[in-house]
Amino acid sequence: MVATDPPVYEIADHDTVVGLLTHAEQPYVLRLRDLPADEKPREKLLRYGPGGLSSAELLAVVWGVGTKREELMAMTRRVLKEYGDRAIVHERDSRRLAEALDIPEVKACQLVACFELGGRAFATQDGQLRYVRTALQAYEHVRDMATGKKEQLRGLYLNTHYEVIHDEVISVGSLTANIVHPREVFQPAVEHGAVAVIVAHNHPSGSLRPTDEDVEVTGQLVSAGKILGIELLDHLVVAQAGYQSILEHFDE
């Protein structure tokens, strides 16, 4: 067999609700007020720095207090378990986040603002945007999705130089043609001036085989992109075993 270079992308010229555990199903969590003073998140941050805190503790520092119906540490652990810290990092819609996490909008806004600041610093820390020209490069960008316990659809938005100018979680939940509307995928492209989109979603089951729904959604997005003049370069299925490019799969 003759080795060939992997295909490269070419840009042409031209609400899911996350299910939550009931209070009866919630595991016991030590309340913030029950912790020794030096074990509380803010005090630990001052003593050890951010690297010495768990994700739940860092989230507790950001929020400061819980709600009338949910204690702070119980809420942070529930949110991270149900939604996943990686998904939260890439969520940009405060109202959608509030609904999905069952938290007040003010707390969702705090999260979005916090991660947006971090994302901007990370994107520009070396003065360059990330370049994505192949399915493998796209996978390297989204491989953190592989361990997610809920299915997520994520979009990478590219400029004419194949640089990722925006990265966003589009939806959380089973990928179906009835739930994923092309508008949700392409609206961020319009807002950020992207000329092409790569979408990816994870299979918590571990299977890399595209489902019939995956194929149907891909076809709809390709068609919508042609109408809008914003090309869908690829749709990746991501799991712990690796990735599968749906468009490459059907070109074989």
Would you give an account of this structure?
- This protein has 252 residues and is α+β, with helices and mostly antiparallel strands.
- The protein contains ten helices and five strands.
- The protein has a five-stranded mixed beta sheet with strand order 2-1-3-4-5, sandwiched between helices.
- A hairpin with a 5-residue loop joins strand 1 (152-158) and strand 2 (164-172).
- The chain is elongated, with a radius of gyration of 20 Å.
- The relative contact order is 0.12.
- Mean pLDDT is 81; it is low at 15-28.
CATH superfamily of the largest domain: Cytidine Deaminase, domain 2
Query: What percentage of the residues does DSSP assign to strands (E)?
Result: 5-15%
Based on the structure given, which CATH architecture of the largest domain is correct? 3-Layer(aba) Sandwich
Order of helices and strands: HHHHHHHEEHEHEEH
Low-confidence region ranges:
15-28
Number of strands: 5
